[in-house]
Amino acid sequence: MGNLLSQNNLDQLFKEEIKSLGKTRFEELKRSQKLKDHTNVTHSIFLCHSHLDKTIVDKIVILFNKINIELYVDWMDLDMPRYTDRNTARIIREKIDKAHKFIFLATYNALRSKWCNWELGIAYSSKGENDFAILPIESRTGKWTGNEYLQLYPEMKIDGLENMHSLKAEDIRISFYDNRTMNFIDWILK
Known about the structure:
The chain is of the alpha/beta class and 190 residues long. The protein contains seven helices and eight strands, in the order E-H-H-E-H-E-H-E-H-H-E-E-E-E-H. The strands form two sheets. A five-stranded parallel sheet has the order 1-5-4-2-3, with helices on both faces. A three-stranded antiparallel sheet has the order 6-7-8. A hairpin with a 5-residue loop joins strand 7 and strand 8. Helix 1 packs across helix 2 and helix 4 runs parallel beside helix 6. The protein is globular.
């Protein structure tokens, strides 16, 4: 598939950021993410993910923070209910509808999650393909095998994975199933 982000890439980025920022500064960044109010952000991105992938999500937040893009992550939202219920579903649906874009973090766990598949359906029906993308994450073995239906959706690809420390938004592109591509910044601003 080429240019797909892997857990190994994310591990490399995490180690470099900890080394660069220091553990204390890194923890401050994570805490500040939990306190952000995403309601007035012009270009918000809802990150759909499995809660079983918390460590991957932490690294994805670092990655997007590095390129100055904020993500909405439901468990980082202090206003979310502690336990999932009908109210949780209502809030998530509202957050998806209000978000400018939607990214599905396509991991083994997310593909098996009832919540993720529900969010995927909500987002695709309300957003359409221009405001929607999947971000496949290869396993540590370097493989990613998603479900066939994911081939219908635009996919996020990253150039220069070998130099994660110098990653820029310009290195990310969205590839559509009809072979069109769009750079990430244009996708965000569209």
